[in-house]
Amino acid sequence: EAKRSSKGGYEIFNDQFGTSIERRFQMLSELKFSIYNDELTCYYQPQYDYDKKAIVGFESLARWNSAKFGMVPPIQFIELAEETGFIKQLGRSVINQTFAFAKRIKNPGIRVSFNTSPVELMQADFTDYVIERFRYYELEPQSVAIEITESCLIESFDEVVKKLRILTDCGICVYLDDFGTGFSSLAYLKELPIHSVKIDKSFIDEIVSDKVGRDIVDMIIRLAHRLNLKVIAEGVETQEQAQCISDCGCSLIQGYYISKPVSGENAITLLDTLKTC
Ligand code: C2E
Ligand code: MG
Ligand code: MG
Ligand code: MG
């Protein structure tokens, strides 16, 4: 792509990402198109209770298989959408797909979470939209959860807490994603109406080989449980890691060890093959 466009005699590179502005522009217009063309879909990765050997939930993860660009990693197109304001429409598509999927699940007690970026959360009509959709799909309370990151909390903490309270009052759970990777103080934890923290994969990577790494994870789990929060360990790839986390007192895991993110169809099949609570 870059080669071809340079024939035109112009090529502007964005230093930070090494992506030409032209390519970004093309990507954005394809991304906009993709939402109406079903190229942007959600995949679902199981969240698993290792002790009970049962699926307890799924995380919805956006996938973009572009006719023009092939599979584009979420990190790339989410960032593009955030920077251009398109995240609002993208986020709404994700919410609708996720809620429709949650509605399809007949097994009681399974909760489906979706990711939200700070830009989405700060939209004035965000909570209204989520609640309207929650009612439209006639979802059971506790059947969906919103994942936020610490970066959502940096700017207007009180405002975010207010929004999250509105959602939790309707029975929507809140998970704190990538826990431990931000720079916020721990003091905010007690103010947040959250249900679970998700320990970032970077901590799990070290857990078997590194004693200090394991101590840190152990401490995070104790702290969260002490605050009555559930803990989900992310990016668990091996049985050793799963066992290690379980030994630290956390039985909820998500990662390739259980399953990669799969299509909605295949996720429903997983529910039948892997046991549920
Ligand atoms: P995240 O929410 O922390 O999602 C977890 C990421 O780890 C996913 O990458 C998942 O596929 C990957 N993962 C899970 N288990 C394993 C494992 O065992 N090994 C490895 N190597 N990776 C694993 P993905 O799907 O590429 O998403 C990356 C990030 O993009 C997400 O991080 C989230 O921040 C963002 N994202 C994805 N979908 C959405 C969305 O619909 N909306 C928003 N706002 N952000 C999204
Ligand atoms: Mg997440
Ligand atoms: Mg995460
Ligand atoms: Mg992450």
From TrEMBL:
Keyword Transmembrane: yes
Coiled-coil regions, chain positions: none
Residues of the EAL domain: 24-275
Annotated keywords: Membrane, Transmembrane, Transmembrane helix
UniProt name for this protein: EAL domain-containing protein
Species name: Caproiciproducens galactitolivorans
Whole sequence portion shown: 472 to 748 of 748
